[in-house]
Specification:
Length: 338
């Protein structure tokens, strides 16, 4: 029976990959490309912005810590970068980021001059300690205040809300103080709306419900030089009606958290997190990349790589998942030279 089930799962995954189309090419506005994520997705979002600051002009992190926190060590990821024991050394992390930028391992920090950064975490988060998320905010503030030319970078630390390790949604319920699948807390706070407002400004119009298209796309087609990026065969992309019609469109890349990928929660994150409705209002497509769980390398919870399972260069421009991401944004329509 177990063998039959395994075959069925493998067949379903293969069929999904076969059915997924390439990413649609949009009339992409390169000035309105941003990234967001929850938990491991938050760490991935800050890695994406530091690696490609000339691409990602905004970043919103929910329950994540500072760039480079784990330094390629799983024990540091589980301790300092989740529990805050010992606390992350923000000064050392900022200095290392500056060194990496000078070496070309990440992007030029000067490209962050007009970046928008929004950091959100709950005071009841027992998975990623509030002190770790505060270290993430301190990292950006120290970059802004210490690196010449970055005084215009906007850094907003939203740290006063009571919710657990989840992404808050607008509806109210009894799970706001819990961290349980699918990690969407019914808190009466629309985190997706706040993320859009901080990254793209006030909403240009009100939208009651998402009316665009949620599509799957072939993630394997974007493997950098054929290398395995440890991702699922198919990802998702949401297209607002105006974007699908060929009008100028922004892009938000939304990284799920651990155990929040489609294999774990179905389409709960890509449909119910709240991003799609706001995407219609702002004319911003939403890219939902998907990881996969594995035991070799060890990543049983399908987290994004923020400690090094995909290689020692995981949080640099040479990291396989970050190279995949750059290829995906270019496939959507990022102009050459951006």
């Amino acid at each position: 029976m177990k063998w039959c089930l395994a075959v069925a799962v493998l067949f379903a995954a293969t069929a999904q990959a076969d059915e997924a189309a390439p990413l649609p090419r949009l009339k992409l506005d390169p000035a309105r490309v941003a990234v967001t994520g929850l938990s491991s997705g938050a760490y991935m979002a800050t890695q994406a912005q530091l690696a490609w600051p000339e691409i990602f002009h905004g970043a919103a992190m929910v329950a994540g810590g500072p760039y480079g926190c784990a330094n390629g060590q799983l024990n540091a990821a589980l301790g300092s970068c989740m529990k805050g024991v010992p606390p992350p050394d923000v000064d050392a992390l900022v200095a290392r980021a500056e060194q990496r930028a000078k070496a070309g391992e990440i992007g030029p920090l000067a490209a962050l001059a007009h970046a928008r950064v929004y950091l959100l975490h709950g005071r009841a988060d027992a998975t990623v300690a509030p002190a770790v998320a505060e270290a993430g905010a301190a990292f950006y503030r120290k970059l802004r205040d210490g690196v010449p030319g970055l005084k215009g970078m906007q850094v907003v630390d939203d740290a006063g809300r009571d919710f657990a390790h989840n992404l808050p949604v607008a509806a109210s319920g009894d799970d706001c103080g819990k961290s349980e699948s699918p990690y969407l807390g019914h808190c009466g706070f629309d985190a997706a709306g706040a993320i859009f407002a901080h990254l793209y400004g006030p909403p240009p119009r009100a939208v009651a419900a998402a009316k665009g298209q949620l599509r799957t796309f072939d993630q394997d087609a974007l493997r950098p030089a054929g290398a395995d990026a440890f991702m699922a065969p198919a990802g998702y992309v949401y297209l607002p009606p105006d974007c699908a019609a060929g009008k100028p469109c922004g892009l938000l890349v939304a990284f799920h958290g651990c155990r929040q990928n489609a294999e774990s929660v179905g389409e709960a994150f890509v449909r119910d997190a709240g991003f799609n409705r706001w995407a219609d209002a702002y004319d911003v497509a939403v890219l939902y990349p998907q990881t996969r769980a594995s035991f070799a390398p060890l990543n049983p919870q399908a987290c994004w790589d923020w400690w090094g399972y995909s290689g020692s260069n995981y949080d640099t421009r040479q990291g396989v998942q970050l190279r995949w991401l750059a290829a995906a944004v270019r496939a959507v329509g990022l102009p050459d030279g951006k």
